[in-house]
């Protein structure tokens, strides 16, 4: 009984520490997301094509994550997560203080990206470790809701900071870095978790091929919206930092209620229906981003584009359904974290490509053509989601 009580206490402690970690990193990343596009526009005066090429250092961290994780195989999950957040924090400090030229900013952005992307699969794996059987979606939804609360705070922090307290891009990056380092400290106080032997890394398993394909589609869809959606708001609709921060705040508030409901929907309706619904919604979101200005007055078009931005931010969390799908089809528990990491690398191979191709399409045919391509990806995602089959669970 004492052993069971000790395990329960340890579980609750780790869950509490991980909740605090998610909140700290959500706050930090919200700060970065709110200022980054305006930082680029005001500091370096980028064109749409140059903004696209910036995705190489930003997303190459995601491509290299499988190799970094394999090289650090001897670190248990939570120690590796701690290392990742330290790397990300150092990148943010350097980006704030030492972005003397555009090329140096490239270097610091890559460092931040590597830490951020190393943490992504570990975040999901640790969250699923801290969930109860049959309630994985609910746990992921709860943690995402907590992250969204932190996103609200971070966005609101930037909103009032730039409006009334004379924040600069440099001070904002330093504050974000502080919360990254705080996250590393919290992770260090958790139980270390489990390391994965070298043979588990750098492998593709044919039994997970649909999961890999879903990850690739998510990566390409995600990149279009991360790169081009805010860039449309900043350059086409001429919106300032405060507008992006406001929209992220609205998305965060909505996510507090949406995320737990989404998690429960994954547990009750299943991954197949949740991912299908996401694909259908994304088709309409792409149409709104790409063609609202051609159909409606500028004021109404801006409202539609802003609504699409919020909906898209909420739909990013549907990626939890892909993770719970993997957990249900996994044939070896030791495959989980390495396969999640491999999916990050796969989706970034394609997301980097789509960013470069999208930038060329924007320059040649206009931003509308980029979102037409996004709609085609959403259709492919629809058909992939319909192929999902979950084996009988004991």
Characterise the protein shown here.
The protein is mostly helical and 394 residues long. It has 14 helices and no strands. Helix 3 packs antiparallel against helix 13 (336-365). The protein is globular and about 65 Å long. It starts with a helix and ends in a 9-residue tail after the last helix. The model has no long low-confidence stretch (mean pLDDT 85).
Head-to-tail CA distance between termini: 26 Å
Low-confidence segments? none
- How would you spell out the order of helices and strands? HHHHHHHHHHHHHH
The gyration radius over C-alpha positions equals 20 Å
Biggest β-sheet description: none
Structural class comes to: mainly alpha
> Mean pLDDT, rounded to whole units?
85
Roughly what fraction of the amino acids lie in strands? under 5%
> Total helix count?
14
Please estimate the helix content. Answer: over 70%
What best-fitting shape do the alpha-carbon axes yield? globular
How many beta strands in the DSSP annotation? 0
């Amino acid at each position: 009984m004492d052993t069971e009580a000790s395990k329960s206490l340890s579980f609750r402690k780790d869950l509490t520490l991980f909740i605090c970690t998610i909140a700290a990193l959500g706050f930090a990343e919200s700060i970065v997301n709110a200022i980054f596009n305006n930082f680029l526009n005001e500091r370096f005066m980028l064109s749409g094509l140059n903004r696209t090429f910036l995705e190489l250092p930003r997303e190459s961290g995601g491509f290299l994550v499988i190799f970094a994780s394999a090289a650090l195989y001897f670190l248990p999950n939570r120690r590796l997560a701690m290392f990742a957040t330290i790397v990300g924090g150092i990148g943010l400090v350097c980006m704030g203080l030492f972005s003397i030229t555009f090329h140096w900013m490239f270097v610091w952005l890559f460092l931040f990206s590597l830490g951020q992307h190393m943490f992504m699969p570990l975040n999901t794996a640790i969250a699923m470790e801290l969930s109860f059987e049959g309630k994985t979606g609910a746990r992921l939804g709860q943690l995402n809701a907590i992250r969204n609360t932190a996103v609200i705070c971070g966005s609101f922090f930037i909103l009032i900071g730039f409006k009334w307290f004379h924040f600069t891009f440099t001070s904002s990056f330093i504050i974000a870095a502080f919360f990254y380092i705080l996250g590393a400290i919290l992770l260090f106080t958790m139980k270390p978790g489990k390391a994965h032997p070298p043979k588990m890394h750098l492998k593709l398993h044919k039994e997970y091929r649909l999961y890999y394909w879903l990850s690739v589609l998510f990566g390409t869809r995600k990149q279009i919206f991360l790169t081009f959606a805010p860039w449309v708001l900043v350059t086409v609709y001429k919106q300032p930092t405060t507008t992006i921060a406001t929209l992220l705040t609205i998305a965060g508030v909505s996510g507090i209620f949406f995320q737990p409901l989404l998690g429960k929907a994954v547990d009750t309706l299943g991954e197949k229906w949740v991912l299908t619904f996401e694909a259908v919604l994304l088709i309409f979101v792409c149409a709104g981003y790409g063609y609202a200005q051609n159909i409606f007055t500028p004021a109404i078009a801006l409202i539609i584009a802003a609504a699409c931005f919020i909906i898209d931010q909420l739909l990013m969390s549907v990626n939890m359904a892909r993770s719970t799908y993997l957990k249900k089809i996994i044939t070896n528990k030791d495959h989980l974290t390495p396969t999640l990491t491999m999916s990050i690398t796969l989706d970034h191979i394609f997301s980097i490509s789509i960013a470069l191709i999208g930038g060329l399409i924007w320059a040649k045919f206009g931003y509308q053509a980029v979102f037409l391509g996004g709609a085609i990806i959403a259709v492919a995602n629809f058909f992939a989601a319909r192929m999902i089959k979950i084996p009988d669970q004991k």
